[in-house]
């Protein structure tokens, strides 16, 4: 109970100082990561690992399931038809180029990875995290077109990364998948069954919610509780049929908004629970990252910097050519693609499935280096970046 107690006290303290911290350079992910690192430094390494390690996977998987569902459920798909389909450009050309460039550079810097493992690390680090860039997507000083595009991109690219990651994992052969028949069976189980579970839970739940609301049976609080239960249902059913819980949650969110639109884009309870869980992931990340920092080499930090700059910015600049955005705006959007919660969870799931090994350990180190750099670099540059964006306006 030591770590939960410490975390709850930290959340309470953050709540007390939240208004004071809003205008500072310190973001919530930075503070909770630093807090976790400080706690780990005060505890013995063994105690820190035993206290936090067994919590990390469960909390992280649940957090990503809720995040994927919430993003899919609350993203307005009509945004794709606005502003020259900027979000669609980033989620198609931009994302594929990011994974391609990330895989090539990972392969060149670390030849021992091989092609498929290089693609895995690039895919894990492809999703962006709107939570790390909350200052950006919520600031009125950032043009609405830029804010909405970054928000929609972050809302959907984590869900789109999951099937690509599963495909690359299968191609490594670690699950004994060698023949085409077994490969097809695995893809159907993970992706096909996952999508089917999501359609049943999200679509069916949406129909029932709509019927209840039309009859006047549904209160606002009841709606939030019912909607929040859907991703957990998708998770449990996906586990029961050996499907991907992440695909199931993402498709459930899309299916729900197809059949039903919640009265509020972000329920109070739903939003607060998501924040709590995300803070806990960053706290546990900070707790466990201290042990990994001793083995971080300059090459890992170099790849992390490349992932945040060249690997992200070049594809974004190319994807947005002819969009009507200025070069300054495109560069701003290229830089503010922070790596956070989705990369942590996808990396953790990959490590859990693969156990140990030189290449697995290397991927873990690259993810740690990139996310750690992103938490602090994107947090510290958010406010100065907004001022830079508005310099010529």
Automatic annotation (TrEMBL):
Tree of life domain: Bacteria
Membrane topology type: Multi-pass membrane protein
Signal peptide boundaries: none
The keyword Membrane appears for this protein: yes
Keyword tags: Antiport, Cell membrane, Ion transport, Membrane, Transmembrane, Transmembrane helix, Transport
Entry's Gene Ontology cellular component terms: plasma membrane
All residue ranges annotated as the Cation/H+ exchanger transmembrane domain in the record: 9-384
Xref: InterPro entries: Cation/H_exchanger_TM, Na+/solute_symporter_sf
Example GO molecular function: antiporter activity
Keyword Methyltransferase assigned: no
Main location: membrane
Membrane-spanning segments: 28-47, 54-70, 90-110, 115-137, 191-209, 229-256, 276-294, 300-320, 332-351, 363-383
GO annotation, biological process: proton transmembrane transport
Compartments where found: Cell membrane
Alphabetical list of PANTHER family matching this protein: CNH1P (PTHR32507:SF8), NA(+)/H(+) ANTIPORTER 1 (PTHR32507)
Name listed for the protein in its UniProt record: Sodium/hydrogen exchanger
Taxonomy of the source species: Bacteria, Pseudomonadati, Pseudomonadota, Gammaproteobacteria, Oceanospirillales
């Amino acid at each position: 109970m030591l770590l939960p107690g410490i975390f709850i006290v930290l959340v309470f303290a953050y709540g007390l100082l939240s208004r004071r911290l809003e205008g500072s350079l310190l973001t919530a992910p930075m503070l909770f990561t630093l807090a976790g690192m400080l706690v780990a430094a005060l505890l013995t390494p063994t105690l820190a690992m035993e206290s936090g390690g067994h919590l990390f996977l469960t909390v992280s998987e649940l957090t990503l399931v809720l995040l994927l569902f919430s993003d899919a459920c609350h993203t307005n798909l009509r945004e794709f038809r606005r502003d020259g389909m900027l979000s669609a450009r980033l989620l198609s050309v931009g994302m594929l180029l990011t994974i391609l460039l990330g895989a090539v550079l990972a392969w060149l810097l670390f030849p021992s990875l091989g092609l498929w493992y290089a693609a895995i690390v690039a895919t894990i680090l492809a999703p962006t995290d709107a939570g790390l860039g909350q200052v950006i997507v919520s600031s009125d000083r950032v043009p609405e077109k830029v804010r909405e595009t970054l928000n929609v991109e972050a809302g959907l690219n984590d869900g789109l990364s999951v099937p690509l990651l599963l495909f690359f994992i299968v191609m490594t052969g670690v699950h004994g998948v060698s023949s085409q028949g077994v490969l097809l069976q695995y893809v159907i189980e993970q992706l096909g069954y996952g999508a089917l579970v999501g359609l049943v839970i999200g679509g069916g739940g949406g129909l029932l919610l709509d019927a209840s609301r039309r009859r006047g049976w549904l209160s606002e609080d009841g709606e939030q509780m019912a909607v929040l239960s859907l991703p957990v249902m998708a998770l449990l059913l996906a586990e029961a049929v050996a499907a991907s819980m992440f695909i199931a949650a993402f498709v459930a969110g899309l299916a729900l908004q197809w059949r039903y639109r919640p009265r509020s884009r972000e329920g109070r309870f739903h939003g607060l629970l998501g924040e709590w869980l995300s803070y806990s992931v960053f706290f546990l990340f900070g707790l466990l990252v201290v042990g990994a920092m001793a083995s971080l080499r300059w090459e890992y930090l170099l790849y992390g910097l490349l992932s945040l700059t060249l690997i992200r910015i070049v594809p974004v600049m190319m994807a947005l050519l002819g969009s009507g955005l200025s070069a300054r705006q495109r560069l701003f959007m290229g830089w503010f693609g922070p790596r956070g919660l989705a990369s942590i969870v996808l990396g953790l799931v990959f490590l859990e499935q693969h156990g140990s090994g030189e290449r697995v350990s290397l991927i873990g180190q690259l993810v740690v280096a990139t996310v750690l750099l992103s938490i602090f670099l994107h947090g510290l540059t958010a406010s100065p970046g907004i001022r830079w964006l508005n310099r010529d306006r």
